[in-house]
Structure formats: C-alpha cells, structure tokens
Design brief:
The structure is a single chain. With 151 residues, the chain is of the alpha/beta class. It has a single domain (4-143), classed as HUPs (Rossmann fold), CATH 3.40.50.620. 42% of the residues lie in helices and 20% in strands. The chain starts with a strand and ends in an 8-residue tail after the last strand.
C-alpha cells in the first residue's frame, strides 16, 4: 500500500512531470508526499572557478522550488513537505541522498524523472535516475521525459 511518496525534483521539465505524477498519485491514494531537492554542483561546472556563486544560485533555485511545491501541495489538498539537502563537498552522490531521504522518511515509493539537468545524457536513463534505481531498497517509479527516453 502506498501511503508515503518521495519525489525528487531539480527544476527540469522531466522533474516537473515526476512531481505532477507524484502529486496525482498522492491525491488518488490519500498519501503523504515528501518533495526533495538536492543542492549539488557537479565538479566539472566549477573546476577552476569559485563555487560559491553556483552554490548560492542552487540554493535560490531550491527555495523557489520549495515555494512552488508547497503551494501545489496545499492547492491539491495533499499533506506533505519539501526538503532541501545540500551536498558538500561538491560532486557528491545525489542518488545516495535521494535513497537516504527515502529511508529516513520511510517512503513506500520514490518517483523520479529519467532525465534532469545533470551532465551528459545516457541512452536510456539519466545518470541520477539510473543510480537511484541501482541503490534503491524500495520501489522506484521512473517518469520519462517528453520524448520518451530523454529530452
């Protein structure tokens, strides 16, 4: 039985689709929804630069996403919350943080988009989604991008 849903978001169109799906699932099941955003800057983006402006930009994006997600939860009448986690040092393991949050929150299922805003795209899955599934100890629902395998 699905009563606790965790959805990972990153501001990408595919993550928006994952949020839409998770919100509809929570509404249909009268479940709680835990929305997770991980502040992370891949090392390649800041190799020779001061990472602070990038980190601050990600924090601001996280706060904007928190506000929007909270409003949508309230508007749909779904109980839930929005968590922002930071990965420091840079280049940490986002999939591990998603699974750790799911474990700590005791989620019944994880919902994640197959392609987000990170790195080079894979043939079938985004690297975060793929590694999240590989590390998962609970069911994971994968939401494809607009073009199926990717965007």
């Amino acid at each position: 039985m699905i009563q606790r849903i965790l959805v990972a978001i990153d501001g990408s169109p595919t993550a928006d689709k994952a949020f839409d799906y998770a919100l509809a699932l929570a509404t249909a099941r009268k479940a709680r929804l835990h929305v997770l955003f991980v502040v992370d800057i891949p090392v390649a983006y800041v190799a020779d630069a001061d990472p602070f402006p990038f980190i601050e930009a990600m924090r601001m994006q996280g706060e904007s996403l928190r506000k929007t997600a909270s409003e949508r939860l309230k508007g749909a009448g779904v109980e839930g919350d929005v968590e922002i986690r930071e990965l420091l040092p840079l280049g940490g393991d986002v999939p591990h943080q998603i699974n750790l949050a799911a474990e700590e929150w005791q989620a019944d299922v994880i919902v994640i988009g197959t392609h987000g805003r990170r790195g080079v795209r894979r043939l079938a899955l985004g690297s975060v989604a793929e590694n999240c599934v590989r590390q998962a100890t609970r069911p994971v629902i994968l939401i494809p991008g607009e073009n199926g395998a990717g965007e």
